[in-house]
Amino acid sequence: MGTPTDTNRNLLTVVARMRAKAGKEQELREALVALVEPTSKERGYVNYDLHQGVEDPRWFFFYENWDSADDLDAHLNAAHLVEFAGRVDELVDESGPLVIERVRRIA
């Protein structure tokens, strides 16, 4: 089994990362898990995989693929994402702020 970009190198890949505030790991995890199901119904969704750090479980990562930048922009403006964004300051440590990187597979 491969990755979505094995068959479509034109997908827009996103890697998002953030580090939970101390004591907020479970709360952030639950908030992030709650984003997965509604996101899977969005236009342009290919995958939206949530990961948690092994060495430091305060770190969370999304590995995502979208059909287009327009689809990603619509996702970032979806109600469930806007609601989550309103909680970022309460859940995410400033030493590991929410960072969203748009990347393209090259090899």
Can you give a write-up of this model?
It is a single chain. The chain is α+β, with helices and mostly antiparallel strands and 107 residues long. It has a single domain (9-103), classed as Alpha-Beta Plaits. 32% of the residues lie in helices and 27% in strands. It is built from four helices and four strands; from the N terminus they run βαββαααβ. It has helices spanning 25-39, 69-76, 79-85, 88-91; strands at residues 12-19, 45-52, 59-66, 99-103. It has a four-stranded antiparallel beta sheet. The protein is globular and about 40 Å long. The model has no long low-confidence stretch (mean pLDDT 96). This is Antibiotic biosynthesis monooxygenase family protein. It holds the Pfam family ABM.
